[in-house]
Amino acid sequence: MTPSTVFLKDDERLRTYQKADAWVIFDSPSDYPGKHVARRFTRDENRPQPFWNSYLDLKPTTDRFVAAGLVELRAMLPQDRGCFPPPAAADECVVEVWI
């Protein structure tokens, strides 16, 4: 799923927001010890808000990739993403976030 722009009418002006999803990379999570796992997180598409706020409201989906190594796992991810370090409050096994 790639981000798309949606236009909403609000008090006679148009605002835009993006439907966001992110892939969160985990190193050896409890359900896949010794593996790297990418899990897709998304947010409620019916709640318009600026993209930069939506990152905070992401919810997990059942979509995932599992690989033995980080390089192999990165090759499975959608290629139209940028890599970011995990948020400070993230679990210690979170390696990076692809948005």
Number of domains: 1
What is the number of helical segments per DSSP (H or I, 4+ residues)? 2
Number of strands: 7
Distance between the termini: 11 Å
Report the mean per-residue pLDDT as an integer.
76
Percentage of residues assigned to helices: 10-25%
User: SS-based structural class?
Assistant: mainly beta
Gyration radius from CA atoms, angstroms: 15 Å
Low-confidence parts: 1-18
Name some characteristics of this structure.
about 100 residues, mainly beta, five-stranded antiparallel beta sheet, two-stranded antiparallel ribbon, 7 strands, about 40% strand, disordered N terminus
How would you summarize the topology of this molecule?
Blueprint (H helix, E strand, L loop, with lengths): L4 E6 L2 E6 L2 E7 L8 E7 L8 H4 L4 E9 L2 H7 L6 E2 L9 E5 L1
Task: Walk me through what this model shows.
The protein has 99 residues and is mostly beta strands. The chain has one domain. The protein contains two helices and seven strands; from the N terminus they run ββββαβαββ. The protein has helices at 51-54, 70-76, and strands at 5-10, 13-18, 21-27, 36-42, 59-67, 83-84, 94-98. It has a five-stranded antiparallel sheet with strand order 5-4-3-7-6. Strands 1-2 form a two-stranded antiparallel ribbon. Strand 1 (5-10) and strand 2 (13-18) form a beta hairpin. The chain is globular. It starts with a strand and ends with a strand. 12% of the residues are buried. Residues 1-18 have low confidence and may be disordered.
